[in-house]
Amino acid sequence: MARLKQNLLAAVTGAWLYVLVLATMAFLVLPTLIVIPMSLSDARYLSFPPKSFSLEPFFSYFASLEWRSATGVSLLTATLTMLLATTLGTAAAYSLHVTQSRVTGVLRGLMMAPMIVPTIFIAIGLFFVYARFDLNNTIPGLVLAHTLLALPYVVINVSAGLRSYDMTQEQAACILGATRLRAFFDVTLPQIRFSVIAAAMFAFAISLDEAVVSLFISGGDSSTLTKKMFSSLRSEIDPLIAVVATLMTLLSIIMLCISIMAQRKAKRAAA
Amino acid sequence: MSQEHKLSMSIDIENLTKTYDSFAALDDVSLNIKSGEFLSLLGSSGSGKTTLLMALAGFVRPDAGSIRFAGREMVFEPPHKRDVGMMFQSYALFPHMNVFQNVAYPLKLRGFKRADIRKRVEAALATVELDHLIERGITEMSGGQRQRIALARAIVFEPRILLMDEPLSALDKRLRETMQLELRRLHERLGMTVVYVTHDQREALTMSDRIAVMSQGRIRQIDTPVNLYERPANRFIAEFVGESSCLPITLQDGQPLFQGRPVRGASVAASVKNPSLVVRPEKLQFVTADASDYNLLNGRVSDVIFQGESQLVQIDLGEGMAVAIRRPTRSSESNRLPERGEAVVLGLHLQDTLVVGDDQ
Amino acid sequence: MSAGANALNARELRGAGRRERWFLFGTGLPALLLVLLTFVLPIGWLFWLSLFDAEGQLTIENYTRLLEPIYVLTFVQTFKISIIVTLVCVLIGYPYAYFMIKGSRWLANLAMALLLVSLWTSLLVRTYAWLIILQRRGIANDLLMSLGLTDAPLSLVHNLTGTVIGMVHIMLPFMILPLFAAMKSIDPIYNQAAATFGASPSRAFRDVFLPLSLPGLAAGATLVFVITLGFYVTPALLGGGKVQMISMRIESDVSMYANWGAASSLGVVLLVATLLMLFIVKKSVGLSRRSE
Questions:
Q1: pLDDT tier for residue C1 given thresholds of 50, 70 and 90
Q2: Residue A12 falls within a domain, yes or no?
């Protein structure tokens, strides 16, 4: 009898677990999905089933100079950030990996610090410093700021790749006649490339999505997409925003897929 | 004396020292390796043999000392400028390149032309008998094949010095013994200077022109295999190279005594610390008590162990001492082995008698 | 015996060694420079600013001002929201992470995939989506009314409720992922051992699995709490002005009042609170691990 009660209890708990998890899964994915139907209707309120179908928001988006400009700024910044953060971060991860000294721990902590410090604090600090050097509302200013935010993630990813890589190969390349730099590009980089790719995707996504710092340091001609979205949302809900949201979401999902594939390949290569 | 031949270079190591946090990996090591010689660095882990090899390659920067290849100072040169071949314990092949690209890599770095590279790679792979696998990927290769590819890559640019870091340790026994002989033959053919690191004394004995036995960052003795085996400088060497039992002897007026009886055929200086009689299993014989050219030992058989091609008879000499005698397995009556518990007389020929002391 | 100062080539070798070390360090130098210029410098400057008033006089009034009721209220509300969000994330996140370990392979993978999709979708996009979903004529209210749970549309957004819902959504991955990683490293052999001692599955869970998962839970909860403390975007958009978190005060102090003294001191307090929390949790988790 006790065994039956135990089994029943387990079954009920199991059922509740399933229900809770399924509900959570729906909760998690709902917002991502909702933007797509929203962008195909010019109603201000999304209801299910959607009331009207219209491509009006898409047309308004492509017609708007401001929105197109903001998109260009964000994409350019994200690309430049990806390139800069990946290069700097990979070099830093390599340096930390091959130098084993007491200073290494401190430096690594310093690299990770932007993850811990509240972004709003970094944002106003940059705004203040940029004001002194006329870097506000410039793309270089944005790229530097986003690179700072992306750097920890790049270092983490590439460091992980380096840890599961056999450094002896670089030694072998050197004794065969390659300089350290040549050995890195010929032998090491091809083998950590999946970690580097995943890191690059991270950097791109972080830059594209970055809202808080961009709010302060971007503006005018170099407003980012996020800044424009934020200001628009503050005032009213323009269906056009749904289009922006949809495009950003599609881009995110592509980045995510590439990153997952790269990380999976990295794991397989390390095995 | 520096020598430079077409095929090989001499190596002169002088006062090499390397310390890690108060641990002396290399302790004022000096060594002259002749051009074209096959020299093994033999020792257990922590002896400094690998550190020495890495210093030759340029991966370890010594705290002090000089390394000269054919008279030219190399100790300041980075690894990529040393122009030596090297085989790593883990082979360190490049998995993202195929066999051809791996072996061709040093040639590519040296700016050889395409056709030339092709020819040399094929020749190198033919030397290790793997030319039929030239287009395969590295990950498809077995351990033994990878080892040969690593060798081909190390010699394809005809280096005059070849460094090897325990290259056979990952192979099984049979393959290892085959490769030992092959490497020996390769060395005879190609003629470069080889520095070979190993912890396996049998391997060192098989392959080397000379062996440098290392321990605690210093070279204890460097000599030909025969001399090292037959005339070890001290007890450490005697016990490290080959099997041996070292029996303590006493000195009375300059005369060595074992169990009260004089030991003939050996002269022992008074300055020798803790003199011991070196007894190797294959040098002992069963003799009668009246054998004249032998030093005699009395004991009782404690065990007879069959080991295939030979049998090991363990004999208790009393006072806590024991020796072993090794006899080849033969069926003839004259070679009957004694049984457990039997009292026996062992003879160590005067010419095989050797007394050594501790390392000073 | 280490090499004496005059040993053969010792000086040149030391120099060469130093040069090589600097070269390797130099690879990481650009990144370090970036961090120094865009991170250490601004933050240092902010610390500095917080010690000066509007006339440029050295003062601690920026900090004493924080004891005034309006600021205290902001602190209280920020902490309140952080605690609520953390608790909800724990309650929802733990079963989810557990399911990702124990559930059927296919569903567990789906659970992870959806989690990642959520994480990688832009923060702004998700916040905007919640704005849509939770509005008076949005689908949340539509659903509630059609299920008969309420007659009139509930005010789900532009208030605390909406803010909490949005924040929980953003923070869930940060709770679940560390928790999942920690749970994954729990060797199933412990549960099996408990079973051989006669423990029922729920007993084994309570006595073995749960305690072993606590460090991971602590890590996730701390992460969520600390990030929520300083969060800006979601409360700003979903709070409708009724929610005032520290970050929003900082923002208004800068953009509306150009009161750098107030903004920087608030920021410093926020940073110190964050670091303190991390330190406390690290120490207590470290302690509990030592007692195991």
A1: very low
A2: no
Query: Count of alpha carbons within 13 Å of A252, Cβ hemisphere only?
Result: 24
Q: Dig out the tokens for A81 from the structure.
A: 């950030």
- DSSP designation for B131: G
CATH 1.10.3720.10 residue window(s) in chain C = 61-290
Predicted confidence (pLDDT) per residue in C230-253, tens digit? 999 999 988 877 888 999 999 988
Structure tokens at C157: 């957004």
Q: Do B63 and C2 touch (CB under 8 A)?
A: yes
What pLDDT is attached to residue C292?
A: 43
Domain count, chain A: 1
Is CATH 3.40.718.10 what the domain over B11-230 is classified as, yes or no? no
The three-class DSSP label of residue B89 is coil
B79 Cα to chain A: minimum distance (Å): 5
Q: For chain A, give percent helix, strand, coil, nearest 5.
A: 85, 0, 15
- The pLDDT assigned to A49 comes to 60
Q: How far apart are CA C226 and CA C218, in angstroms?
A: 12
A257 falls within a domain? yes
Q: Do C139 and A117 touch (CB under 8 A)?
A: no
- Measure the CA dihedral B356/B358/B359/B360, to 10°: -110
Chain A residues closer than 8 Å to C82 by CB: none
Q: What residues of chain A score a pLDDT lower than 50?
A: none
Contact C1 B65 (CB under 8 A): no
Whether A236 maps to a domain, the answer reads: yes
Q: How many CB atoms lie within 10 A of CB B100?
A: 18
**C61-290 CATH pick, 2.40.10.10, 1.10.3720.10, 3.10.180.10, 1.10.150.20:** 1.10.3720.10
Choose among B157, B84, B89, B78: nearest CA to B117.
B157
Q: In which domain, by residue range, is A109 found?
A: 64-270
On whether the CB atoms of residues A237 and A46 are closer than 8 A, the answer is no
Please, are residues B206 and B214 in contact by the beta-carbon 8 Å criterion?
no
Helix (H) or strand (E) holding B9: none
Q: Does C45 touch chain A (CB under 8 A)?
A: yes
What average pLDDT does range B176-188 have in this prediction?
Answer: 91
pLDDT in tens, A61-84: 888 888 899 999 999 999 999 999
As a CATH number, domain B238-356 is 2.40.50.100
pTM of the entire structure?
0.86
pLDDT tens track for B273-302: 888 899 999 998 888 888 888 888 889 999
Neighbours of A32 (CB within 10 A): 22
Distance from C-alpha of A238 to C-alpha of A57, rounded to nearest angstrom: 9
Predicted confidence band at B210 (pLDDT cuts at 50, 70, 90)?
A: very high
First and final C-alpha spacing in chain C:
44
The torsion angles phi and psi of B165, rounded to 5 degrees, stand at -105, 90
Asked whether this complex has an ipTM greater than 0.95, the answer is no
Lowest mean pLDDT among B112-121, B326-335, B341-350, C205-214: B326-335
Both tokens of B3, joined, read 């020598």
Q: Report yes or no on A102 lying in a domain.
A: yes
Q: Across the interface, do C3 and B19 touch by the CB < 8 Å criterion?
A: yes
Mutate to test the interface with A, among C112, C125, C233 (most CBs of A within 10 A): C125
